Amino acid sequence: MNKALERLHDSGKIARVAMGIYVRPKVDKIIGAVLPTVEEIVKAIAKRDKARLIPTGAQALYQLGLSNQVPVNVVYYTDASARKIKIGKRTITFKKATAKTLSLKGKISMLAIQALKTIGQKDVKAEEVDFIKEKLKMEDKQLLQHDLNLAPAWIRELLQNRKDA
After folding, report:
1. What is the pTM of this model?
2. pLDDT tens digit string along 57-93?
3. Most CB atoms closer than 10 Å: which of 48, 58, 67, 129?
4. What separation, in Å, do the N-terminal and C-terminal C-alpha atoms of the chain show?
5. Which CATH fold topology does 37-164 show?
6. How far apart (Å, rounded) are the C-alpha atoms in residues 100 and 98?
7. Spatial contact of 84 and 138, defined as CB atoms under 8 Å apart
């Protein structure tokens, strides 16, 4: 298997993104081979490992739209094995997390909770809370309520009065 992958890599049919991770690059007429984004790689790893993943820190802020900085070091909570994967100059870190943390169901509410945890209770600004509440209007109400029940009390209090939306 390794030799076959090596031959495909040497012939240019596949590209090695990281140790044990290969992709068939898409070819653009102008810029040449286009490799997948970090998010696409993370989704593929989660699918392969049948793992649940939740973005944390700067990645959650970026995906939610609270930050426009693309994080160089991306951290995800997972129920799979903890490890680091280096992709070019970027690093993807998978950290073990509790079942409660990984039980969040809503895409937007999950990002909102992780983003608020990153900002911190003492540093969160009213504009950020308003921005998050506006985003949460697009979340399914049942998923939002489920996730708020799992969120820390201070986050629940900040977002609870969303029902007026």
Report:
1. 0.81
2. 899 999 999 999 988 899 999 999 899 998 878 899 9
3. 58
4. 55
5. Beta Polymerase; domain 2 (3.30.460)
6. 5
7. no
